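Re-running GPI-anchored protein to confirm reproducibility after the cluster update. Everything else is unchanged from the original entry.
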Amino acid sequence: MARVQFSCTEDFESKNYTIITSQCKGPKYQATSCCAALKKFACPFSDKINDLNTDCAPTMFSYINSFGNYPPALFASLCTEGKEGLSCTDDEVNAGKPNGVPPRFSQSPMLMLAAGFLILLFNWF
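Result of re-run:
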C-alpha cells in the first residue's frame, strides 16, 4: 500500500543556504566542511526532515542542490556517521539554538532520506 505523503510545513524555499554554499565548495568537496555545514543548516529542522509522512527531506535537498549546484548524491556519499544517519546532538550543532536545546530526535536519518530523494529524482528522468 502506498504511503500518504503530506506537504512540508517548513518553508525551505525562503531559507538562507549560505551556511552550506559558503563552506561546501567544489570541485574537491571536503566531507569535513560540507557535512558540518549540512548539519548546521538541517539539524534545527530534524524533526520535520525525519517525518517520513511529509516531503520535507526531498524538498530541503532539492533546494540545497539548486542553490549550491551540487552533483547528485554529494551529501549522501560524503556525510556518513552511522546507520542512523547524521547526529544532531553535537555541541557545535546545538550552539546556535536557543538554550542549546537539542532537537527532538537525537539521530537524523538524513543520509537515508538523501538517498531516497536521489532515487526519486532519477526515476523522474
